[in-house]
Amino acid sequence: MRIIETGCGNAHEAFIENRFTPGVNVVFSNDNNKGKTIIFQAMMYALGNDPIFPSGFDFKSYYFYTAIENNGESYLFLRKRNSIAVKHGDDVAVFSDASELKYYVSANIFPLPYIVKENYQKLVDLSLFYQLFFVGQDRRDPSNIFNNGYYNKQDFTNMIYALAGCLTLTESMDKLKRLRAEFQDCTAQIDVLTRRLTFYRDHPDIASLVSQEAYRETAEKERKQIQSINETISDLQKRRTRLTNRKCKLENLHSELNSLNMQLKTGKIHCLDCGSENITFSNGDLSFELTNDLVRKNILKSISDSLQLFTTEISELSQQISEKQAELNRIIQSIPVPISNILIYTDTIRTYAEDEKRLSELRDKADAIQAEIDLEQASQDANSQAQKNVKSHILASMNGFYKLIDPDGQQVFSDLFATRSMTFSGSEEQEYYFSRTLAVFWCLKHSFPIIVDCFRKGELSSKKEKLMIEEYKKTGAQVILSSTLKDEEYSAGGKYYNMEGVNAINYETNPNSHILQEEYCEQFMAIVDSFGVVMV
Question: Higher model confidence: residue 536 or residue 78?
């Protein structure tokens, strides 16, 4: 994937940046407040990232646009507030928020990994995924992820494991849990039968024996297990209901738009109040002109695609519910009659021969279950070892990059994130992000651009900067950096222009604190119009 073009604006002011090359790009100026951070944040915000714009910038008043190329295909993203549209060829898909967008991105552009979150297998949000390769200027915290809240640094680490193919997902954990429960139940039955057969041999005059205490403990354990499964089923059903409600709304909308489509073909529709024949469809903060055949077709296709995504998600949740219900049924069916009844040895109890046969069957079953447990545990152990290897590889690379840039530095990274007690002085924080971003890149060998806003933050020296740029070049990936130069560097005669393999993009001519300008409005609004979006 690489960034082709980005921008933001409205009908009154706008800015477009289309000078990026596939190699190393440096956006620079002689001063702050030239719009570099706004453009970097706009680029990622249009792609579904969380907003981290500079204070004072009213991002809710603007449209944001980013064009990318991935595997030879072009995708254009347009966003206003939460609403996002994606254009691919003549097709336009529309989404109410970034949560809906991620399913489209994962299915059509690049696959997103699944992690285990709150005991559920979850497709990661774009805001977490982009932190693999994007480092913004603000809200940096080496001890945690950007915008930590729902996600945390362990989720980031698990995402890396998932991309490396060594994360143990919910199915494996649930399977091992179920097998161990079955094995425990089986061995308990073996123990009961063994003791009973011994009792038969030693006491031919079988008498009644009751253990109420053992029964109470067993009953409480079974109650907790059933309650836990019921709670899981309830949570899954609530999630399915929410998705089903959203799907029903989309189906109703699709039906209404289809009905409108028929009316447009057979006659004219106009407003009784003003007489206008223009009809628009609004999705959050994006409005589309439905009298345009292509736009109407794209809206209907977008809704159909969203319905298909929701259908898939609902089907997966239904499958999980069915599996949990089946597990619940197995447990209920396996619950023995009260121990008090089992241990009352009367003439109605099976014969000695029947118990011996049952004991043999149970031992065979236990052996088979244990073999499955060993196999599943071996798989999880292999994943755990692979995770250790991945983490060790990344940490070795991080410390290697750090020492390359700062041979006299005293930091030693023992985790992907710094501890809160670690003190970063001067440019060390920037060196940390540089080291981690490159270490993750080389470990995963991912195909995404490396994007770092203010990559010289912390008074990074020119010597260190040159070393960093050389390492960025070695990746062969698209790299987009921003830099604020000192007066003596800027006046030295084209610092970045003279660096081989670097595309210099000068922002010094931009007005202070006002990168959005009227001269870009016509071009920017033509892009907005190409999505079929109209101003309302």
Answer: 78
Mean pLDDT of the chain: 83
CB atoms within 10 A of CB 267: 8
SS (H, E, C) 11-52: CCCEEEECCCCCCEEEEEECCCCCCHHHHHHHHHHHCCCCCC
Tokens of 412: 């030693």
* pTM for the predicted model, two decimal places: 0.72
Would you put residue 459 in left (φ > 0), alpha (ψ -120 to 50) or beta?
left
Within 10 angstroms of residue 160's Cβ, the number of other Cβ atoms is 21
pLDDT tens-digit readout, 124-163: 999 999 999 999 988 888 889 988 888 999 999 999 999 9
User: Edge-to-edge strand order for the sheet containing 14-17?
Assistant: 14-17, 2-9, 63-70, 73-80, 83-88, 91-95
- pLDDT tens digits, 291-309: 677 777 888 788 888 888 8
* Mean pLDDT along residues 13-25: 96
From 6, 17, 133, select the one nearest 69 (Cα to Cα).
6
Left if phi > 0, otherwise alpha if psi is -120 to 50, otherwise beta: which for 214? Answer: alpha
Report the distance separating Cα 438 and Cα 389, nearest Å: 17
Helices (H), 335-410: 339-342, 352-405
CA–CA separation, 536 vs 222, rounded Å? 60
Count the helix, strand and coil residues of the chain and give each as a percent rounded to the nearest 5: 50, 15, 35
Can you tell me the distance from the alpha carbon of 268 to that of 281, in angstroms, rounded to the nearest whole number? 17
Residues 6 or more apart in contact with residue 309 via CB below 8 angstroms: 100, 103, 104, 107
DSSP-based three-state secondary structure for 311: helix
Tens-digit pLDDT profile for residues 334-353 = 665 443 344 334 433 445 66
Distance CA 397, CA 409 (A): 15
Q: What CA–CA distance (Å, rounded) separates 50 from 42? A: 10
